[in-house]
Design brief:
The protein is mainly alpha-helical. The chain has three helices and no strands. The radius of gyration is 47 Å and the shape is flat.
């Protein structure tokens, strides 16, 4: 217990000493030792150059009294542009389950895939025949 109290008093003494010791280092006494950096150059005014002649402000065109616009024509052009952006559907969407397979497949829809599957099946059958012939 005696060692702990001695250690406590030593630590307390260090804190008190640090509290009453004057600060040291770069920021210790800024008002007493302030010096100007050698990298700072003294102020020199910029040289006076000949000012370019003032450019007159651009003038606005006079306002028209009437705006030439045909509202029906403008509306029809806007509608045509709008319909040009909307994709057209080939057929109306049938009622019912939209995730179900189509009842009538479109001709040629899966012809290429079916032909590739048939070629693949034919190749596998030939490989199987070769294996049977080699093992026999």
């Amino acid at each position: 217990m005696r060692d702990y109290s001695a250690a406590f008093f030593v630590l307390l003494g260090m804190y008190l000493k640090a509290l009453f010791t004057p600060a040291r280092g770069r920021h210790a006494a800024p008002a007493a030792r302030r010096r100007r950096s050698t990298r700072v150059r003294p102020y020199a005014p910029a040289p006076v150059e000949a000012a370019p002649p003032p450019v007159p402000a651009p003038r606005r065109t006079p306002r028209r009294t009437a705006i030439p616009a045909d509202p029906a024509r403008v509306q029809s052009e806007a509608t045509a542009r709008l319909h040009g952006w909307i994709p057209r559907q080939a057929a109306p969407v049938p009622p019912g389950d939209l995730l179900a397979a189509p009842l009538e497949p479109t001709p040629g829809e899966f012809d290429e895939l079916a032909a590739l599957v048939r070629v693949w099946q034919r190749q596998r059958a030939e490989q199987d025949q070769r294996r049977v012939a080699v093992t026999a």
